[in-house]
Amino acid sequence: MSELREKIIQSSLQLFSEQGFHGVSVKDIVEHCQTSKGGFYHHFKSKDELLYVIHDTFVSYVLNEANRAKRRYQHPVEQLHEMLKSLVRVYDLYNDHIIVFNQEYNYLKDDYYQLIKSKRDEYEEILKGVIKEGQRLGYIREELPTTVTTMSILGMVNWTYQWYKKDGPKTIDQIASTYIDIIFTGLLTEDAFNQYQTSKLSKELEF
């Protein structure tokens, strides 16, 4: 990513957060990051595309990390562990993007919205598939409704943007460790949880 493109994104994140998407013009953005309209349009077709890129950045990150976890690990508990770790870490990497997303996503043009929705749906299906496979193999409690379980995990983690602070008392990995402990305590069968507690994965993220 070019330095100017990143500078435009960072300026827009600040301005959109403070003034809202419709309260900010391309002129405001280029003045804030001290570039020209030509510089802006070299990297973005429009302010609408810029809003899409802000959304797509963190959605693509968690989706790519989910696919990487699926390729790297065969065991569903390991896959779920890695997916949860990256899902939490996104709030350290892209918290400003996520704040703007939650504030401004209604203004996404329909074509862009559908692209984002497609990636979010794909992520949910990967997560749901990992949970189903864990249930089939006896590692995750089979009585738990898969869809409700999937949405409960996402709902809990997705609220992180409301309170997470980079300079807070807990690091993002310590927060991830807490989430994983809560989720695994509720999801895993007794035998699977005992196995997890003695595994290398449980030692990766310390409280």
Automatic annotation (TrEMBL):
Report keywords, A-Z. Answer: DNA-binding, Repressor
* HTH tetR-type domain location: 2-62
DNA-binding region, residue range(s): 25-44
Q: Tell me which domain of life the UniProt entry assigns to the organism this sequence originates from.
A: Bacteria
Pfam family name, one: TetR_C_24
Q: Entry's PROSITE patterns?
A: HTH_TETR_2
Q: Specify the protein name.
A: TetR/AcrR family transcriptional regulator
Q: Which organism is it from?
A: Piscibacillus salipiscarius
